[in-house]
Amino acid sequence: MNNCFKYLLILVLFFSLQVDAEVIHKERSLYRNILVEDNHNLRCLKFNVKTSKSNQSCLYKNDPQRLVFNYTKLLFSGLLINNNPQKILIIGLGGGTMSNTLHQLYPNAEITNVEIDPSVIKVARKYFGFFENEHITSKAQDGRIFVKRAALKKQQYDWIILDAFNGDYIPEHLLTKEFLAETKQLLTEDGLLSANTFSVSDLYAHESATYKAVFGDFFNVRNRKNSNRIILTSQKPLPSAEIIAQRAKALKNSLSPYGVNIFEITSNMTSTAFDQDWPQGVKLLTDQYSPANLLNQ
Amino acid sequence: MGIELLGGRILAPFFGSSVHIWGSIITVFMLSLSFGYLIGGKLSTKNASLTRYGFIFLIAGIMVLPIALWSTEIMEVIFLTIEDSRYGSLAASMALFFIPTIVLGMISPYSVRLLVTDKEKSGQVAGKLYFVSTLGSALGTIVTSFYFVMLFEVNDIIYTFSITLILLGLSAILFNQYSQKSTQNIAKAIHE
């Protein structure tokens, strides 16, 4: 009964929030419609009005440190592979939440944000508290070009976070075997790549097969509740379950202020070495063949 | 149009998918088509024949091939020389698409020349021709973007376009030679 009441309350709250949503900023950028919406205490960045899945980034205005989205929390699984990243590359800025949080966790780490849409960077600065300083930079550029140029300059990163796939359009050239090989070149010896991507649709199998072809086995990190999954790969072979458990213990306290429960995350990690959930012989995504948007229907 | 559409896919690995990519591609296609129309029209004034028409197709088919064969190498060089991805993508579209699209542009005015037999009907012929070629462009666009990219690799599509053009050219040349021979034979028969 108590439970029933709780759900009812959540439902009522949900609808009242829906009604009270207030658009505080609206613009049509070169790439999309950008909306910033305030819902009482919750502020969200949206790229499209109609679909409910179009929330790109949200924050609690009274507690900006606490992370709202599950997938953002899942990204912290990367710290189980390398718990002291000093050079971080984030492709796809959103509201800049990852950048801000990682700066708090690692004040000396050098963080580079790459975002194709200059308007998104402006909105993140103005409405989501995204900040830059001598350690944090942002660049308005296509992720693929940035990666190619960085490889030419022989730059290296401990952690590359690929978060460019939210919304209604998928940049197909950021899913291919060639692109993944280019990002792999940028990783340091202890480097890792986290990609926030899809867990439903036909694209799942193609994408998984492509990652495995480039990086070998990887971790799937997901939460049963939503359709995101994080692909977690590294330059070195994946660490064992014992090592992960040890690292999770060490990370627990530093991550809890952000609402990240690292133990829960470890329980949702599966290695493709033991659990390959896509058929053999699926066609890899390449620069020659990457109909990602058509597969993701 | 099919090739124009694939252009975006071909350039993306080196120059991204920003808006200026499409700016570059469309600019180059429009520019080269305009030159193609001019040259094709001029060419049609001297000894216009189905054989020469066939050769235009043949050359177009061959000029399309470098897109499939060497695009990566060509784009790599441009990527290394030009830092700004706007001018990089413009240079790359020039290098890859300028010449084949000029040759493809020559086809339309040359077709008008071959099809017009009666001055009175020239407008109608031109109208029909625009109808067919623009409808063909529309079809090429939708089939390529909706289905071909799902079924084939980019290079396979380019090769298919190229082979089709070459076959069309060859059949025009052969057809012309055959019909010339038969008219010669008839002339001979009458003469005898």
What layout of secondary structure does this protein have?
The complex is a heterodimer of chains A (297) and B (192).
Chain A: H1 2-20, E1 22-28, E2 33-39, E3 42-46, E4 55-60, H2 70-75, E5 87-91, H3 97-105, E6 110-115, H4 118-127, E7 136-140, H5 143-152, E8 157-162, H6 177-186, E9 187-198, H7 203-215, E10 219-222, E11 228-234, H8 241-255, H9 262-267, E12 269-271, H10 292-295
Parallel strand pairs in A: 5-6, 5-8, 6-7, 8-9
Antiparallel strand pairs in A: 1-2, 2-3, 3-4, 9-11, 10-11, 10-12
Chain B: H1 2-15, H2 19-43, H3 50-81, H4 85-115, H5 122-151, H6 154-191
Account of the 3D structure:
The complex is a heterodimer of chains A (about 300) and B (about 190). Chain A is of the alpha/beta class. Chain A has one domain: 3-Layer(aba) Sandwich (Rossmann fold). Helix content of chain A is about 35%, strand content about 25%. Chain A is built from 10 helices and 12 strands. Chain A has an 8-stranded mixed β-sheet with strand order 7-6-5-8-9-11-10-12, with helices on both faces. In chain A, helix 4 links the parallel strand 6 (about 110-115) and strand 7. With about 190 residues, chain B is an all-alpha fold. Chain B has one domain (about 1-185): Up-down Bundle (Growth Hormone, Chain: A). Helices cover about 90% and strands about 0% of the residues of chain B. Chain B contains 6 helices and no strands. In chain B, helix 1 packs parallel to helix 3. The radius of gyration of chain B is 19 Å and the shape is elongated. The mean pLDDT of chain B is about 90. The interface of A and B includes residues 172, 178, 294 and 295 of A.
